[in-house]
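Researcher: Please translate sequence to structure tokens.
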Amino acid sequence: MAGKVFSYLRANSVDKLDFVICTHPHSDHIGGISSVIGEIETGTVILPQIPDEIIPATDSYTDLLRTIEQKSLDVRYPAQNETLKLDDNTYITFLASVENYEELNNYSIVCKLVHGENSFLFTGDIQYEAEEAVIRSGADVSADVLKVPHHGSTTSSSYYFLKNVRPEYAVFEVGAFNDYGHPHNAVLRRYEEFGCKIYRTDRYGSVVFISNGKDIDVVTEKTYADS
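Model: Translation complete:
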């Protein structure tokens, strides 16, 4: 994973990361990030606030914390509705509601990136409970592009959530022939009912959205034609 990230950053002449957002400490979301921030100049690492009793003792999370300490990096735990201004036309708002959960996935950082007239919602692995909490908080979750919660599993992407987001594009981050059966057919049908343009990483590879503040272009690593 780190190798792909390095390759992408180099290809785009990126030699500094002002902010790195780690949604939650599961290896499929932060695996390899310690190598990235260990090699590339990094400003602030943004992490979710998680109760000690459910923090996993995984190698990837331990490596991340060790690298942060060794490089003396700034760490930020965003508050609900906190906004991070990137430039005059671009900002990120952190939307995750402050609730107590038993499931680690529900502590995922949820954030909305707004660039001019375009908006992107990133949801980590939140499940129904956290989806409902974010909406109850009164946050504006509407977005042009949605990073589908929890890889399109049956525990997320409720009709109520999609009715509030109403994305034009939906990105399912899934591995080919994964053991979990992601994305679930019922969830895919739900997105199709909302008329979303669906991009699956098992079919398209990396998916990049390019925004000029008004229009959005989509660039995929691979082409895919429905049979």
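Researcher: Any highlights?
Model: The mean pLDDT is 93.
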